[in-house]
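[Solved] Which block belongs to which protein?

Original post:
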Amino acid sequence: MTRARLVLVAVALGAAACDPGTTRPDLLPFPEARSFEVTRDRGAAIGLLADRLRADTIPVGRVDTLDAWLETPWFDAGTRRPVRGDHVGMQFVKLRAWADPARPTHAELIVELAYRPVADPSLPGRMLERPLPETHYFARHLDSLLNRLQAEVGFEPPAGAR
């Protein structure tokens, strides 16, 4: 094989190894996001979380069990109804969740709640988002829901393990 062919094969293999077709949003969770390990694979963990959110009347906008993430539309934390347009303040929130690999047959669920304190059309939306304070009534409610989920399917490491 010529050198040029080897380079082309290497480039083709490298491109095939990348997955540009992921549907996951190109953003990282807030450092304050809640995370815990569950005894489910990634897709099942996100599906279970979506079911629990819906059962609690939290609107779920998009669920992707293949790429293991979900998000809600922006919604009113009091009524739990989706809202349209730009709404600012802690009353209007968005929930995002990701399931990342942990160990075989386990996933790490990461759940964040965001709000926008200001509206500024000159900035991308994510730059305006802030984590909802854990003292907010809806954040406390979600924490309770996640505690119940963690008690049911969460993984507790053996005593003395880290």
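(Second protein starts here: sequence line, then its structure tokens.)
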Amino acid sequence: MCIKPRKHSFHSGFSLIELIVAMLLISIGVLGILSAMNTLVKNSADPMVRKQAIAIAESLLEEIVLKDFANPTGGYTGTDRTQFDDVSDYAGYTTTGIVDISGTAISGLSGYNISSVTVVNAALGNIASTDAKLITVTVTAPGGEAISMSAYRTNV
């Protein structure tokens, strides 16, 4: 018995070179997708870090704005935050890590710093610069991003 091979005008299956090229193209596509996902996952925590820095700046700014406009008679002039009694006492205040008003470190915020607090006389609309102070709080987040927030405190 003799078996004759069939003659076809087309190839059946894939050649080895075609399989290698297909695998290479699929690999490049998968690497591109994984690279994009890696970037997204890596930066997904950044909004949380930024929001935390904003919350820290807002908190300190609110604390400062609630103080008296000017140093009261016999008021405090030192650097102990627990004794600050007016807005200007905070000028130049900085921390390494975030601490509460008594100076106790707040757990989980050691990577954040209050890098500067400035208090300057500044006119505000019809209010003279002698009756308005511009307060700016700058917080540095882990990774080096600085968040600044400003508010005015007036004496009117």
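Accepted answer:
You had them paired correctly. Confirming on the second one: The radius of gyration is 32 Å.
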